[in-house]
Amino acid sequence: MGRPVAIIGVGQTKHGRRMDVSYPDLVREAVLRVFEDTGLTPDDIDGVVSGTMPSMMEGVALTHFYFADAMQAVGKPILKTETCGSTGVSIAHTAFYWVASGMADIVLAVGHEKMNEGDSQATMTTVCEPFYQRHFVAGAPGAFSMQSRVWMDNFGIPEDKVRDAAAYISKTHHDSAFDNPYAHVKLRVTIDDVKNSKIITYPIRLLDVCPNSDGACAVIFASEEAVRKLGRKKVAWVKGIGFRGEEYYFGDSDKAVWQSAIQAAKEAYDQAGINDPRKDLDVAEVYNPFTFQEMMFYECFGFCGFGEAPDLVLKGIFARDGQLPCDPSGGTLCSNPIGATGLIRVAEAALQVMDKAGDHQIPGARTALGHAMGGADQFNGIMIVGSEM
Amino acid sequence: MAKEFRTLLTEIKLPYELAYGATWTKFFEGMKEKKIYGTKCSRCGRILVPARTFCPRCFVDTDEWVEVSPQGTVLTWSYANYRYFGMPMDPPFISALIKLDGSDVGFLHIVAGFDLDDFEVVRQTVKTGMRVKAVWEDERKGHIMDIRHFEPL
Ligand SMILES: [Zn+2]
Prior knowledge:
By secondary structure, chain A is α/β, with parallel strands linked by helices. Chain A has helices at 23-38, 63-66, 87-100, 120-125, 139-154, 159-177, 191-195, 224-230, 259-272, 277-280, 291-300, 309-314, 331-334, 338-353, and strands at residues 5-12, 47-51, 78-80, 106-114, 199-202, 204-205, 214-223, 236-245, 283-285, 367-374, 379-386.
């Protein structure tokens, strides 16, 4: 894994419909907060990496140029990393590689999106190839709904049970968002509200789906030497990372047993020395733009066996006070500025092991997982952080 | 009360001319003749639909052409009931992965031919594992929508 690397601070914007700020000003809001959090200045930064989902979400290509000033990247090496929905975790991986390799000591990672400025699903559908699949995929909700049905059928899980568990996830995450000052959607919902909400792409309904959010997240990664020099005690050490891609065509592969999710987690677990993730992890920030899909991740990450997730969800195993709390921040379901979202998952995992998560802190969390998914079921990326090196 | 800030309404329009290449030219020409072509991988033996230039897994050329059946089995489906800018079809519609007889992968298209506005009808009609067949347009242009939709058998 190269040299030890730690996250030493994070900054997030208030996520939501942010038509009160221009896109560069939104990015700067997160960057200012990470400097405030770490006490560093732009002079301390050796390199900057940023990314969005597709640039065209806001109609500006190559946004790392647009935000060079807002990220104070002028005169520094700058990189852009873009892997669709998993962009944010890929940005974190890029920053990690940069420091772990010894080529930099302190790297600023910034993820950002302003989804309310364009048409998010129209933009995302351009991820699909233009001759054939783009006509039918019905945006991200369509692809993920079809995948969820394959999973239910494959493991013979009754649709009613999955529906109940998905509604439970929606209700509890919406409740958790009230404890996260940066969350977008703050709405009290009941199980019945979720089950009766408008069909978006059946079986997925409105309250099973993430919002279109504007937001940015900035995270500073530092080498062991830099951590020591700065005299930092509360940091989040990167314990393991994993990333896998899959075949392009939706329909070519079995996505109920989702290999990119399984293999990305396995790679990260092997590095972090995690054998039993449900016991060894204290908290997980699972990328959950759709409630149904969240349960597939639980299974692919080994939190439980295949086909078991809905039962365990309904038993509260993954609730805030359960054995392995998942998405205590309210997760992607309540805030999804896509290019920032994966980095927010990593930032939230880091906050948990630094004991800085505030009202949604899981007491005593020492090991945490951050995750993001991208493409039409194509990419999965993981970063595991811990309080001890 | 929140202060209102100005916004700029703008749009970007760009023309594109996308090359099909030899394999997809032959596949889409086949659609005009009501034929659905796949190609077979000489290494893993899978028949891929639509036809591919190479097998994504084996990385070998797939130059054995096979005509597959216009009938197949629904592997999964979803009822799309929302709209985005430039959506190619008006909702509601049913996206589905269909395993065409004689092929080894899911073919993405739509299932229709009954009252899509009544969700109860949809829920009673559409099941994973149901058999469907292609319904062709009378005037075909060598386009994926030459198949109007798949309907229950
Ligand atoms: Zn092959």
